[in-house]
Amino acid sequence: MDVSQPFLTVLVPAYNEEAGLARNVELILAKLTELAVPSELLIVDDASRDRTAAVADELAARHETVRVVHHPVNQGIGGGMRTGIAEARGEWLILIPADLALDLDELRKYLDAAQDADVVVGIRSDRSDYSGFRLVVSWLNIGLIRLLFGMEQRQFNYISMYRLEVLRRVRVEYWRSAFFHAEILIKAKRLGYRLVEADIHYVLRASGRATGAQPRLIARTVRDMLAFWWRGSATR
Fold it and tell me: What burial class does residue 49 get, using C-beta atoms within 10 Å of its C-beta: 0-12 exposed, 13-18 middle, 19+ buried?
């Protein structure tokens, strides 16, 4: 495998994922080998307070296709994305959470869809682990993005796979909130890149703690969405 110029960079941001990181990285690597995809796996340790950093370093020492970047201060998943964009060596990049959050057999769907796409937008199969509050927040988020930006996709915050060219042409500004996922898709569409959806089987996280429904993050996401929309409206 040519690890200097891989086809795919798998980005794994990790914050306090000591319990499941090693197992899940090994599962990802095994699936990539099975699929015969020239690839690298980039772990971004987001200033974890547990042994995540040490586990990541052990994985990199054990596997030549694994690299690690350590954030000195916590930057959130958006900061991990920015680091991944800067450090990636692949033609394509996919961000897979350290808790996996998908059936790895579904990676084939992303690879197949990439034949006719510049961004493969993953559509999560179900939300059975969402509370009623989180379901409402999710549907409001989707509705606002479609209304404000004329987007037609069914979802915007699940796992997508991107040509690295797209990510390096699109400047990610709103990385401090969850809006950065949609920001990339909106800007990619405006630049004429092809967005193709793929229905992906979601699996419940086996370890770690979800943080997507924190009120502070929700408020910041809405603020960033409206700021981006207002800026665009003001320049028309």
Answer: exposed
